[in-house]
Amino acid sequence: MEYKTIVNLAGVELKNPVMTASGTFGSGAEYSEFYDLGALGAVVTKGVANVPWPGNPTPRIAETASGMLNAIGLQNPGIDVFIQRDIPFLRQFDTRIIVNVCGKTISDYCEVVEKLSDQPVDLLEINVSCPNVKEGGIAFGQKPEALEKVTREVKKYAKQPVIMKLSPNVTDIGEMARAAESGGADVLSLINTLTGMKIDIHRRTFAIANQTGGLSGPAVKPVAVRMVYQAAQAVSLPIIGMGGICNEEDALEFILAGAAAVSVGTANFANPYAAKETAEGIRAYMEQYHVEDINDLIGAVH
To answer: Fewer C-beta within 10 Å: the chain N or C terminus?
Structure first.
């Protein structure tokens, strides 16, 4: 029997539904020493801005029970270095390229998106968990009107389909999903990290210099699955689900909840083969249960 693992995101076909979560895989160079990145449906790059960002002061990572906190601060070399160095590297592999874009103002985002418009990349993922410096540091993704506006503006410059990456640090994820859809988003991805804090009781100080950080890893998975399900009920856009996925069982929960594709993030740090093994595991599950087409599983639980 032929098992079909191809999924479609706004007209872009992925050979399988597994990709990497932004910020956990660099631009793939380090992980390519472990396996051929062509095993993945897509590689999602670390966030890239219009100018180089130094990131936050250290320490900026702390382990937690079943997860980790990070406050890297979106350190990146800037779009010009990225275009010159990272895109040619990724082009060597038979996988889709998704570029994560960050910014401090709407014009920052648009500048990066415009520079990527003539580049050989497949989709753009817009990180709206960045603090909006013009609005006193409230993340673009925390107010529906701000999310709709940044989506609409970015779409004016984008030649590739646009994925809006939603923040879970909101009251109603369905409302945010609808705002992104209203702004013209082609795809949604969620969740980004949950805001958390850890205190070092021996030093009596914050474990992370930034005080707060983004919580990721298995600890957030039940929250992420619930939010993906709610977003899938709220909009008709394809959804990329992420948050604590370590293996195919985790991934399949998201797919059954309504995700057309999934991203493996924090698990890459503990197991560099996590994304590849997840893709292989999904195929094995399909064989075990005689599921001929992965698309038959998307949103099957409702």
So the answer is: N
What's the pTM value of the predicted model, to 2 decimals? Answer: 0.97
Q: Which of 102, 110, 130, 246 is catalytic?
A: 130
Verify whether residue 110 is a known catalytic residue: no
115-132 pLDDT tens trace: 999 999 999 999 998 878
Q: Is 137 within 8 Å of 160 (Cβ atoms)?
A: no
